[in-house]
């Protein structure tokens, strides 16, 4: 039973990573139907910029963290204005390929600067480790899970209550109709992309704070989980991503703990395929937004 | 110019183009779009489906052509049940439709758009696809634009291409969804002539239309829908004097 | 040709097969992007056939192509209710998942990969197979099914309305894509002497997209020339530090390729080579009948009439 609870605690931390990466991805997908392959790379960019500013340039942890998050937002903004806006919105394939190119570009550019190595990341704060009746957990994990809940619930409430959030949901429901009633869809899409990028950046820093390492190609593995969570939850659903992400993290942790690591990826994939067969719009999705 | 007819071929095979809609109902999330709609269309005639916006005309089209499955009721066509078939199998049964908003294959020329169509008769078709495309190009007077990209052509040409694409499948019936939408008066009369030519070649035509003169001009039979229900069904004269129809359109 | 030039061409031609597979799947309107995985599956199957059963190369190629095609068809059937961007998402995840699973399967050599595959691939095998793939695609495009694919790839709704079965098109798109990618995988395995889980990973996918997008995504020629051209470009960039390019060293080539891809998509979304339309020419009808399709059709109509 102790093991079981321990696996659950570790799983919550892993699941938080999935949630933080997925909510931004799913938001952008919902608002503009864009499959942004480069999304998980923003997470990596934030951590490397943090590393560079905080450690190599000796500006300290706080400035480093701010710079990392800002960098993720900046790259997101550049991605939107310089790449996505220049492509015909109806060419889904071109849009996808462009983000794929951006992903390849970012990963390999960063990789060049760090000589294709995995780097150690300094912690944001000194984590304390606790032992309560044989259960191990750290303040890092608590902060990660807590921040994830705050960000995800906050985003979800913001989408429901604020004016911009409501407009965003309107654009997501029907872009064409939103344009007809004179909603500035481009502004809304830009906000969605930048917001998503910033969340990915924050996620990167929080996760690196517990893993204490990062490599330029981490997005390839993160993306798999991100896609699985988004699809199972229903693409476009932020609430769904929170629930499914945490759940997947815990299930994976239990599976790896009891059956071994070779089963880790099978869970997410299996869940995804079953959901697609039974309920293609996802567990929390109202409808399919395709193309 | 000689217009090849298909009527001999069809009667030779002894098949009757005959469309029957029986008790078709369809609702979306509790809102009823079609309620118990029934009517028959005779082979080789032109029938029009009219009614105000939201009367369920396009929903009925979708139910007939397999893009929607009716909740209740049946659709029979040339002796076959169609209501549970997928769209491509409805087309293979000999019934082909066009769309309300024109849909061209982007980037393809007119000739290529025609080549992509499968004949309903499959490999047993007597003509090969290139000969058939040539026939259709001549029949619809598309020679001038045959090698142009579809999406770059004017509206009338695109409407003709839709019909041409349908004809490539060697259909028994063609369903036209608002062919005169956005057309000028001159274009409308050309389209009316086109419908007349389809009829004279033995094809059954069902057309959704808003334009009353066009409907009166081309159709042998008119079916009127309102709020998802059939309110009238008869010849042009009968419909023109029908008090309920007058109320819908005037009052 | 120096051995170096030969080896570069061999690799480029191997990749061109996978890129052709990507071309045909995308051309069928199926947004599937797991061709790296299909290539890897072909490589494992062909490699195992060569090592365990000592079959000749030609048979290895068949085994690899068949296995990958089979996997493609299974994917098409399982995901038949998914399309568009969602399909892309799922195929990426499947590719990544299969790669990670392969890394954990000890019978396949685990993360070290499957070793000891004979080094049979040479320029002749690569160019021969690529030629077969290219000619096959060019002929296929003119067939009934190939033409239907042209329609379904552009508008599935209209394609259905004129009697084309989308499921059939989808299955063929995945099948041919798997077949070609599988051939590439077998050649790759016999070129490197091993096949690794990382070969299946999504990390390779951008490369095939760069080849296709630069070459031209509407024609098999685009896949072929895109692969050869871009592969040579990266070879040139690779020797940047030997003095050809002063500002770049070889670690720069990948991000440069990424940039090339983004710029290509923005500036020329259809790629360099474009599809040559089928022209209607009423005065030359008799000559057209000499085409592959024409000959076949001509005989048939003689028989039936």
Task: Explain what this protein looks like in three dimensions.
The complex is a heterotrimer of chains A (291), B (251) and C (305). Chain A has helices at residues 2-32, 39-56, 61-83, 92-113, 139-161, 163-173, 175-180, 185-211, 218-233, 238-259, 264-278; strands at 119-120, 129-132, 135-138, 213-214. Chain A is mainly α and 291 residues long. Chain A has a single domain, classed as Orthogonal Bundle (ABC transporter involved in vitamin B12 uptake, BtuC). A two-stranded antiparallel sheet of chain A has the order 1-4. In chain A, strands 2-3 form a two-stranded antiparallel sheet. Mean pLDDT of chain A is 85; it is low at 287-291. With 251 residues, chain B is an alpha/beta fold. In chain B, the strands form two sheets. In chain B, strands 6-7-8-3-9-10 form a six-stranded mixed beta sheet, sandwiched between helices. A four-stranded antiparallel beta sheet of chain B has the order 2-1-4-5, with helices on one face. In chain B, strand 1 and strand 2 (31-41) form a beta hairpin. The N and C termini of chain B lie far apart (46 Å). The longest helix of chain C has 27 residues, at 166-192. In chain C, helix 2 (35-53) crosses helix 8 (166-192). Chain C has a domain at 3-200. Classes of the chains: A mainly alpha (291), B alpha/beta (251), C mainly alpha (305). Chains in contact: A-C, B-C. The interface between A and C is large, with 55 and 44 residues.
**Elements of chain B, N to C (H/E):** HEEEHEEHEHHHEHEHEEHH
Q: Care to count the β-strands of chain B?
A: 10
Helix percent of chain B reads 25-40%
The helix count of chain A comes to 11
Distance between the termini of chain B: 46 Å
What is the oligomeric state here? Answer: heterotrimer
Summarize the structure.
Chain B has 251 residues and is of the alpha/beta class. Chain B has ten helices and ten strands. The N terminus of chain B is likely disordered.
Element layout with pairings:
The complex is a heterotrimer of chains A (291), B (251) and C (305).
Chain A: H1 2-32, H2 39-56, H3 61-83, H4 92-113, E1 119-120, E2 129-132, E3 135-138, H5 139-161, H6 163-173, H7 175-180, H8 185-211, E4 213-214, H9 218-233, H10 238-259, H11 264-278
Antiparallel strand pairs in A: 1-4, 2-3
Chain B: H1 7-13, E1 19-28, E2 31-41, E3 46-50, H2 57-64, E4 72-77, E5 80-81, H3 87-92, E6 95-97, H4 110-115, H5 129-139, H6 155-167, E7 173-177, H7 185-200, E8 204-208, H8 212-218, E9 221-226, E10 229-234, H9 236-240, H10 243-250
Chain C: H1 3-27, H2 35-53, H3 57-78, H4 84-104, H5 123-142, H6 144-152, H7 156-161, H8 166-192, H9 197-200, H10 205-215, H11 220-238, H12 253-267, H13 285-288, H14 292-304
